[in-house]
Amino acid sequence: MDLVVFLGLCLSCWFLLSLWNQSSRKGKLPPGPTPLPIIGNILQLDVKDISKSLSNLSKLYGPVFTLYLGLKPTVVLHGYEAVKEALIDLGEEFSGRGSFPVAERVNKGHGILFSNGKRWKEIRRFSLMTLRNFGMGKRSIEDRVQEEARCLVEELRKTNASPCDPTFILGCAPCNVICSIIFQNRFDYTDQTFLNLLEKFNENLRIMSSPWIQVCNNLPALIDYLPGSHNKMLKNFDYLKSYVLEKTKEHQESLDIDNPRDFIDCFLIKMEQEKHNQQSEFTFENLIAAVSDLFGAGTETTSTTLRYALLLLLKHPEVTAKVQEEIDRVIGRHRSPSMQDRSHMPYMDAVIHEIQRYTDIVPTNLPHAVTCDVKFRNYIIPKGTTILTSLTSVLYDAKEFHNPEVFDPGHFLDESGNFKKSDYFMAFSAGKRMCLGEGLARMELFLFLTTILQKFTLKSVVDPKDIDTTPAASGFGHVPPSYQLCFIPV
Questions:
Q1: Which residues pair with 369 in a beta bridge?
Q2: What does UniProt give as the signal peptide span (predicted)?
Q3: Which pLDDT does position 373 carry in this prediction?
Q4: 435 marked among binding-site residues
Q5: Domain for residue 47, yes or no?
Q6: What is the pLDDT of residues 406-458, one digit of tens each?
Q7: Model confidence pLDDT, tens digit, residues 226-271
Q8: What share of the chain is helix, strand, coil (3-state, %, to 5)?
């Protein structure tokens, strides 16, 4: 027994000494709560709401502090000034992708979202250029979104004004837009393959926002050796990747180098152009991962925002009425909304921004990492250190948004009722790692919501004051609660 105690003390001393060596060798990390051996600070975090825990810790340690998530230090940035200083002012130094063990099991450093260095820069630059070029065919991206908005309206009409859960219908529209860009085709809303893909996207968001996944990301050994919902999530990702692989093989068989049809064709052509370059990042692995990234990110965050949007509009009928009055005045009942209308619809623009601010879909952002040793304020952050940026602390900053806990489109309107931009609006993150599809997402939110409110009156199945907008889960993302509503044609 004495030997066991002695070994335990030696292990603890070794652990603390290694932490001290790391800090003293590479510089001075920000202060933070004292970590426990092996598990770090996980017991000081509420895994049901990490964002809230970070806010509480910032009151003790300030806007820049260190947590140990397992054995590794993570620097947390809380508040607009700290987040801006890192992601914008020192954008290159903070442009790495930080540790996200569950996702690393899926993409293994390939693709866009979870790659680093030269690979990330080249694949992101290519993807951004290709997405921007998709007016290259007969229709621009706006044409595609408008067409999908019309399909969405027809699908909502089929509900016959009966109560329905809008989850899958609202997922179909943005998913079809991204499918038309990467696969060159859209699905019928009743297609079983389509519904299977959407179910796996929704299920993975719920799992990734669960307390268990927060534990797995802190103690990644659990992923490989214990049963749990993470295995279901990994299985869902495998299903998605197998579908992308199948579509890619179809593209290879019918590829016309002179007439690229979509993102996959463009990537395959780039692979052919660089086939003799041994250092090329345009590989089959990066193609599958990049398409999977675009497919998932282009579907889930927008559809989740749309679901939350309708819930908030049900909760606040006075806001909905004001939006519909603006739609009637600017567009009317028969013409399809276009992006040109947005500049004439300040209230609608403010409502969409407030929906994104208030729902705070990805509260702690995807983790960043520093690409070199960085002097940040009075600290030295060693190269490779994971950085967590609290987007909640920016979107809910009381200095910028009066009563941030209240849903109020006035947060984005000036005294004359004109739309008011805010540097604190970081719903798409900021800096070099900000959302690749921000422009597309903004377009979809405006055109889909405007078209729905142009064609339907939203009717809640419960009294609006009884609607609870509290997220069903608050981990990686804020997952809206389930609800039903009626779409009444106007």
A1: 96, 386
A2: 1-18
A3: 96
A4: yes
A5: no
A6: 999 999 999 999 999 999 999 999 999 999 889 899 999 999 999 999 999 99
A7: 888 888 988 999 999 999 999 999 999 999 999 999 999 999 999 9
A8: 55, 10, 35
Q: Which residue has the tokens 């809230």?
A: 52
Helix (H, G, I), strand (E, B) or coil at 486: strand
Q: Could you tell me if residue 12 is inside a domain? A: no
End-to-end CA distance of the chain: 78
Question: Mean pLDDT, the chain, as a whole number?
Answer: 90
Determine the Cα–Cα distance for residues 362 and 427; give it in Å rounded to an integer. Answer: 8
Residue with structure tokens 């230090």? 73
Cβ–Cβ under 8 Å, residues 380 and 41: no
**Best CA proximity match to 215, nearest among 392, 43, 472, 390:** 43
Residue 167 backbone class (left: φ over 0; alpha: ψ -120 to 50; beta: rest): alpha
Residue 207, pLDDT score:
87
The per-residue DSSP string of 124-165 comes to HHHHHHHHHTTTSSSS-HHHHHHHHHHHHHHHHHTTTT--B-
CA distance linking residue 34 with residue 451, whole number of Å: 53
Kind of pairing between the strands at 473-474 and 456-460 = unpaired
Nearest of 356, 352, 310 to residue 457 by alpha carbon: 310
Cβ–Cβ < 8 Å for 440, 131? yes
Whether residue 365 lies inside any domain: the answer is yes
Question: In whole angstroms, what is the distance from residue 60 CA to residue 259 CA?
Answer: 59
CA distances to 98, 108, 224 from 101, rounded to whole Å, are: 9, 10, 11
Give just the sign of the alpha carbon dihedral 18, 93, 130, 299. positive
Coil vs helix vs strand at 74: strand
**Helical spans, DSSP H, in 27-116:** 50-61, 80-84, 101-107
DSSP state of 376: E
Q: Which of 432, 477, 115, 172 has its CA nearest to residue 301?
A: 477
Place of tokens 């009075």: 378
Task: Let me know if residue 63 belongs to a domain.
Answer: no
As a dihedral over the C-alpha atoms of residue 256, residue 261, residue 262, residue 268, rounded to 10 degrees, the angle is 0
**Strand extents, DSSP E, 201-269:** none
Residue 156 has pLDDT above 50, yes or no: yes
CB contact at 8 A, 311 and 483: yes
What H or E segment, with its residue span, contains residue 310?
Answer: helix 284-315
Pair type for strands 379-381 and 96-97: unpaired
The range of the structural domain enclosing residue 256 comes to: 79-489
Three-state secondary structure call for residue 240: helix
Q: Count of CB atoms within 10 A of residue 200's CB?
A: 20
Q: For residue 249, what are the CA distances in angstroms to 95, 252, 264, 281?
A: 33, 5, 10, 19
Give the H or E element holding residue 213. helix 211-218
| CATH code for the domain in which residue 383 is found | 1.10.630.10
